[in-house]
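question for whoever is on the cluster today: can someone run the full assembly for these? two chains, 357 residues total. i dont have access anymore since they changed the login thing
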Amino acid sequence: MQKIQRLLLLSFLLFSASAQELTKDNVNFTIRQIPTPAVKAFYIGRGFSVAQTKPYADTCVYTTTLRNDKADEDIHYIRKNWYASVDKTRHHIQTNEYWKKQFDKSEVTPSSWIAFRLSQMPEEQIYAANGGWNQGILSVNVPHGTTFDLTIIWDKKGIENELTIQGINCEK
Amino acid sequence: MNLQYKALTVKNNILKLFLVLVLFATVSLQAKPALMKSLTAVKPAINAPALYLEDTEEELINIKQFKGQVVIVNFWASWCPPCTREMSSLENLYKTYKSKGLVVLAVNVGEDDDAVFDFSSVMNPELTAIILFDKDSKAMQRWKAIGLPTTFVLNKKGKIVYQAVGGRDFNDEKITKIIEALLEE
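^ ran it for u. tokens below:
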């Protein structure tokens, strides 16, 4: 019976780490949590110390993709306009400037900062119709154990669009 | 005893099948994002910014020395999954068309020699395109490349005529036809 329980638990854990995905108006967004040890390992590999990774690794960290696969026009976004909603409270995505200030306190090296900056989902970007996309890391500043909705906003020909993925878990 | 053993075996087999299905579903859900199969035309074509960086032999390479040739400039990093995924098709493109004058400048951003050599040493096919080092990311900023990977295609006049934001399958016919047309100009 214990073996069965372990198998079921493993299955549950595997499922809970799955990606969530939504497409709206031919714009596709996916999000999957990166476990805290993996976040730390990635940035340690980029030259951060364990202590230097802490402020970032303590947030809910995800790998995301945003694709303008089939939209008929270019799309443009500004990342700081995206937000997580928890009990109707909005938590906007932090800017790179915010993280720079955090890391400057712990004297992160210039090369580590470059890797950090470039590994994030770009702060502002334009994706050409039928082809532009990026994969990047996204930090959501809510406590581990929280479930939140994430709203992604972009504009196309000056008209704002948004999609919301509901019920994203931030596993502890 | 035999019946109990058979029941347990059946139960275990069902559980194993369930686990395989779960793993399959999980892997499917976590499938790598598809590499795109297009380039975006830059209209009007724009003059390429300066690019003057060291290669793996610590020789300074100036993009101006390739005027008269079709040049692909690709900004990448070894920790960037779409960058590493597209690299083999970019290398294949280079190998296919280098005899016709195609130049590929794979500009690594922000990493040291060891990181680049570690990656290139395990690459299949072996990376023979010119690797340049943009260690302070200033070249990437000069080219207004915001994320990784970003690719620019220059015609023989040194103008940017195509670009790509995000990973590409450079083996795709849509892309190879563009390169062939530029090489024939």
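summary bc i know u wont read the tokens: The helical segments of chain A are 2-16, 36-45, 50-57, 96-105, 110-119. Chain A touches chain B at residues 4, 7, 10-11, 14-15, 17-19, 30, 32, 42, 45-46, 65, 67, 69, 110-111, 114-115, 118-119, 122, 124-128, 130-136 (CB under 8 Å).
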